[in-house]
Amino acid sequence: FLIGDTRRIIREAAKKSCFICCKMGASITCCESGCDRTFHLPCAPNGECVTQYFGAYRSFCWEHRPQQALQLLPSQDNTCTICLHTVEDRISYKTMVCPACQDARFHRQCIQRLALHAGISFRCPRCLNQEPFMMQMLIMGIRLSKRPPSWESDKEVRPSDQRHRRCDATTCLCPGGREHVEAYGPWQLWLCSSCAAEGTHQLCSSLGSSTYSWECNTC
Fold first, then answer.
1. Domain PHD-type spans what residues (predicted)?
2. The whole model's pTM is what?
């Protein structure tokens, strides 16, 4: 934009209120024809809005955002493939599914963090499909990184087939030690939702029952 165009956009945004937080200065308008909803970019997740970080960089409100036209396959494992915590039993803004295998399910926050860490190697964490998977994630508003995977320069990040199995909390409270893990309860092991290279017992990091993901200090 030219300087004049930038100033004009700022003046127009100052007159518009965000339909999510109701404060002024909303510079993003839904791209759907006839929709006049405006919002701030930081408010978008709270309003379940989608911004596509490619091409024309289009943004959509909660009503007109793109949605995955898929049916979840029946599964007894209703968990996020990345953080291993429960996901909804339906596709929604917060719960997404791989369009290739239609079996990998994940939280939007989890797949967004993976996309930024994986960079050019971003693919389905379960079936390893890349092209259709990546394209659909872009359409659904997942922002990708064009850099090499972060784990190529981080020796502490382990390969995906070697799942982390110990508590890395500063103070481990488990009587059985850092490597003692139980399926449920205070000694259930939570892996970092971004790198999966560090873990913590639920009690050791004071994770409540309403918490659905945990991120290590490194991430």
1. 1-65
2. 0.64
